[in-house]
Design brief:
Structural class: alpha+beta
CATH architecture: 3-Layer(aba) Sandwich
Distance between the termini: 18 Å
CATH class: Alpha Beta
CATH topology: Hypothetical protein yfbM fold
InterPro entries: DUF1877 (IPR015068), YfbM-like_sf (IPR035944)
Largest sheet: 4 strands, antiparallel
Shape: globular
Protein name: DUF1877 family protein
Strand order of the largest sheet: 1-4-3-2
Pfam families: DUF1877
Number of strands: 4
Number of helices: 8
Length: 156
Amino acid sequence: MRLTAEQAAAVLACTGDDEALGAALSALEENEEVYSRACETDKAWDPIHCAIAPEGDEAAWPARGVIGGARKLQEDDDESWVTHLDPAEVAEVAEYLAVLSDEEFSRAYAVMPEELRNPEYGPDEEGYALGWLAGVRTFFADAASAKEHVVFSVGF
C-alpha cells in the first residue's frame, strides 16, 4: 500500500504488536481511497522476491526492498509478513525497478536457488511473475513521485 506520512505513522506505531498491526492494516485496506492506491501481486510476490533477492534480508539493496522492504514490522513472521519503506527508500527501489529489464528478471529467475523454487517453477510461473512485476514497477514509480511510504503485507 502507498501511504501518506500520517497513515504510515499509525502503522509504524504498531511495530512489534502483531494484533494492533493487523488492525491498523485492516482499517487501511477498508479505506477505499487508500486501497485504490494499493498494488496487488497475487502469489507473484514470492517468485519475484526469490528471483531478485534470493538471499532474503542479506540480499543487495535495493533489490531486497521490492518485496522485503527496508524493515519488518511484525513480530511473528510465521503468520504474516509486513514490511515498510520510507519515501527515500521507495525512491531507491523505484529507480532499481526502472532499470530492471524483463530479460534481467528472467535471468535472475532462471538461476533462482532450487530450495526457493515453488512447485510451479518454470516458464508459466516466470511469465506470471513478469506480468505482476509490471504493475509493481508502476506502483513504485507512482509512490516515489508522490513521496509516499510503502507497506507490503501478506498473510500465510
